[in-house]
Amino acid sequence: MHGANRTVRRAVLQKRAVTALLYVALVLFAVWVLFPFWFLVNNSFMTPDEALSVPPHWVPEEPTMGNYQAILAGKVAPGGAEVGLRVLTALGESFAVGILTVVVNLALGGTAAYSMSRYKYRGSRLGYLSVLFARLVPPIAIVAAFFVALRDLGLINSRYGLVIVYTSFTLPITILVLKNYFDGLPRELDEAALVDGASRLQALWYVIRPVARPGFIAAACLVFLESWGEFFYALTLTNQLTIPPVLAGFRGFFQFNWTTLAAATVLAVVPPVLLALIFQRYVVRGLAQGVAK
Amino acid sequence: MSDRTFGLVLALPAIISLVLVVGIPGVQTLVYSFQRVPLSDDPATFVGTDNYAKILGDESFVESLVVTLQYTAGYVVLSTVLGLLFALLLDQPLRGRGLARALLIIPWATPVIIAGVMWKWLIDPSVGGLNAVLFELGVLEDYKPFLADREWALVFTILAACWHQASFSALLFLASLQTLPSEIIEAAKVDGATAWQRFRGVVFPWIRPMLVVVVVINVIYGVLQFDTVWVMTQGGPGDATTLLPILLYRQLFIFSDIGAGSALAVMLGVVAVLVSSIALILLGRGDPIEA
After folding, report:
1. Interface mutation vs chain B, best among A115, A132, A151, A162, most B CBs within 10 Å
2. Which DSSP helix (H) or strand (E) runs through B201?
């Protein structure tokens, strides 16, 4: 009796120790995610001088909006040289490119994915395989062809040029995510609409499109995130048109200082993070079912 | 219009687009790799395998290939293992788990280039916080300019990219773990299986197909990594972090050699396919339960 009791007590203690360890791990995980952010946000509210203090301040002693004001005023540093509204313009271009890329993707990818989910025709298998193949082509490997083509078309440093180029690596993702979603919808939905006298296009637009909203949201988020963070093409095919190359090239500006870059980086990271958090469920499902396949 | 024609018409715009923006540029790159392409509008001339010979004969290519493989190895191991650990942790019934899962998505939603900017300044000796933390903990004897050191530069360009990618891996692992029926785990517990036995016998086989997917994706992203290295070191110090994509950038946009750059691009694609095939073969072997 006494022995059994001790065994139970040991088991309870062991379980508590494991739980405690798991919570320690959880805290470490939170530090891993948040420490770089804390450092970034913290510095964005500091004067350049305070950012240089040793040891560093973990909260600003004299918090300042100067860095954000400098960006809004089109300068690279508080009181620094004018460079125009470079950061704001680039953020705007990033939004424009992202939204246009999403629209193109949903229009082209939505119809194609629906077709691949529902219709069989000669070459339909080939069409699907070509999507899978397109997904395997590394974007960085075909940049030379884009560079020459956009130069000849006069689309270097153009948002439309970027949208065309971004479609190359986002469209396969959109098609795979949406086809996967359509596959999960019962065919009776389409058939019932057709029996009721709807045309095939009407069935797609009025019946399937509303039901497939979560799939469209997932695809739209994934495409926007890909587009927002794309750096290599933006660096090579534009003159710092969108925000990623502006951040990467900040040092080249006159009178560089880190704290203003920190503020610009905060402004650049808020939209994608917010988007992912708001649509967390859709995005994660789309990621697991579409991207991982 | 027959159903067949209708289906084809629906799919055609996307297929034509993919041919235009992936197929043709892909073939064009292959063609360029056998040509000398002048910067002006003058026609390109066929030069056989000269571009390949030029790239392969260049010492920097071999050095870069070695660095790329080192980088990829570190990147794949770290982002996959960390991702698996995060996923296993966030699959436990802990208080605050919902919040932690929201946290998990943040590094993934953060663009890789921004992760690079954050980490570059985080580890900077003059403004960065990491040096101070390590100094206070007694790990460092003095503030260290990590990115000026060949080995540390490679380590930190890997770490910054993994900060983003470990979250990606974890999201996929977690999605896979959540489909594991809890009855199976409960049954194993009733049978007296230890945590490690449950992991080896039940959990690991379950997520193994996802593991293969994650590793292959990570291998490809590792071989093609450009962003963090560009923003943190631009390939330096010296050539310590000059990955193949950095070399490709230089060929195309610094030396303006489209022919040689395209040859390098083709080889980069081949390396990516080769390394991921090797990973696939290695992972395919092993557990007889899965095979």
Report:
1. A115
2. none
CB atoms within 10 A of CB B130: 22
CA distance B106 to chain A (A): 6
* Tens of pLDDT, residues A56-100: 888 888 899 989 998 888 877 777 766 778 899 999 999 999 999
Q: CB–CB of B118 and A39 under 8 A?
A: yes
Residues of chain A contacting B18 with CB distance shorter than 8 Å: 130-131, 134, 168, 171-172
Task: Name the band, by pLDDT with cuts 50, 70 and 90, for residue A243.
Answer: very high
Find residues 228-257 of chain B whose CB sits inside 8 Å of chain A.
230-231, 245, 248-249, 252-253
Instruction: Specify whether the CB–CB gap between B164 and B82 falls below 8 A.
Output: no
- Asked if the Cβ–Cβ distance from B17 to A144 is below 8 Å, we say no
CA atoms within 13 A on the CB side of B159: 17
Enumerate the residues of chain A whose CB falls inside 8 A of the CB of residue B15: 112, 127, 130
User: Residue B290: pLDDT above 60?
Assistant: no
Smallest Cβ distance to A231: which of B113, B143, B195? B113
Query: Which amino acid makes up residue A41?
Result: V
CB contact under 8 A, B17 and A39: no
Cβ contacts (< 8 Å) between B245 and chain A: which residues?
140, 232
Complex prediction ipTM = 0.92
Q: CA A108, CA B243: separation in Å to the nearest integer?
A: 35
Q: Which of B9, B19, B22, B35 to mutate to test the interface with A (most CBs of A within 10 A)?
A: B22
CA-CA-CA-CA torsion for B260, B266, B267, B270, nearest 10 degrees?
180
Q: What is the CA radius of gyration of chain B?
A: 23
**Six-digit token pair at A67?**
């860095």
Domains of chain A: 2-72 (no CATH), 86-291 (1.10.3720.10)
Which residues are A82's β-sheet partners? Answer: A75
Considering only the beta carbons, identify the residue of B104, B114, B172 that sits closest to A265: B114
| Residues of chain B contacting A283 with CB distance shorter than 8 Å | 105
Contact at 8 Å (CB) between A271 and A200? Answer: no
Average pLDDT over residues A37-60: 88
Structure tokens at A33: 């995610």
Question: Which of chain B's residues have a Cβ under 8 Å away from the Cβ of A134?
Answer: 18, 22-23
Task: For residue B120, count CB atoms less than 10 angstroms from its CB and return exposed for 0-12, middle for 13-18, buried for 19 or more.
Answer: buried
Ordered structural domains, chain B, with CATH: 51-284 (1.10.3720.10)
A165: CB partners within 8 A, 6+ apart: A146, A150, A233, A237, B21
In terms of Cβ atoms closer than 10 Å to its own Cβ (0-12, 13-18, 19+), residue A19 is middle
CA distance B111 to B163: 11
Alpha-carbon distance A63 to A267, whole Å? 17
**B173-201: per-residue pLDDT in tens?**
999 999 898 888 888 888 888 888 888 88
* Element at B180 (helix H, strand E): none
pLDDT in tens, A101-124: 999 999 999 999 999 999 888 888
Indicate the length of chain B as a whole number: 291
